[in-house]
Amino acid sequence: MDGGTLYSIGELAQRTGLTVKTIRFYSDRGIVAPADRTHAGYRRYAPEAVARLALVRTLRELGLSLDMIRRVVDQELTLSEVAAEHASALDVQISILRLRRAVLTAAAKREPTPKEMELMHQLATLSEAERRHLMDDFLDTVFDGPHSGSHHAAARRSMTPELPDNPTDEQVRAWVELAELSLDPDFRTSVRRLAEDHVAGLPDDTPTPPRPDMVAIASDLVGPAVASGISPDSPQADSVVAALTAQCALAYGRPDDTELHRWLLHRLEAASDPRRDQYFQLLALINDWPAPERLAPVIEWSVTALGLWAAR
Fold this sequence. Notes:
By secondary structure, this protein is mostly helical. The chain is built from 15 helices and 3 strands. The protein has a 3-stranded antiparallel sheet. The longest helix is centred in the first third of the chain and has 30 residues, at 79-108. The termini are far apart.
């Protein structure tokens, strides 16, 4: 056909793969206007309507509204402007869908009550400011006290999650779990007790060099024994326990005696909460840090070995 030939709506449907009903709908909306009508009132379309409808079909499949499509085909907006605007809108929709999927995936792994499900959804959709407020409340509870500023600053930073602007599904799920954990009153009490024990006996306002954490000392000294498969009730464990008590006595300025052994056993038992490992595993995932070593095996070994040592 030459450029002067017009298509009927049926012929246009055959050339574009669209239905007559769809083309008539677009025509009624002014998106693809007929070039002429027959004496009987039937619509006739110019050849360029084929390319116009191909563009309309593509933009509709990309999810653009009819109003925006009309503005594009009428050259009120350029394709690049529309693409940028629509991509931004899709980013928001994708973010929302990812959050929903993260909540549903987390829920599928357990049997949440309706109340827990609602809480999970709320935690996943918090704004950055709301997330910061929630974690500040948790860390304020944990590190409140006379040493909160001088001796807890580094520990506080090391426990602060920073969810990125474009988190992965896994990071969102980790955030929901960590936020739930931070709201647990029993967990707050457990972590606060560990923080208080760590700074017990330090001066309130003297800038004292940070002393090693008791769990960190145990990790350094006991970790190799656990990795080597040394049993806490074996003779080989004696030298490990002796090194542990000696190092803790030095770090905390106390005699390496029976009282210290009992005190150390009590402290390690208090630190044996498996939720501690869970918190730091989730934190590393959220902050994109290397996965930390699980401390529960080291603490369990130390508690058993110290208990046997104290019973002698």
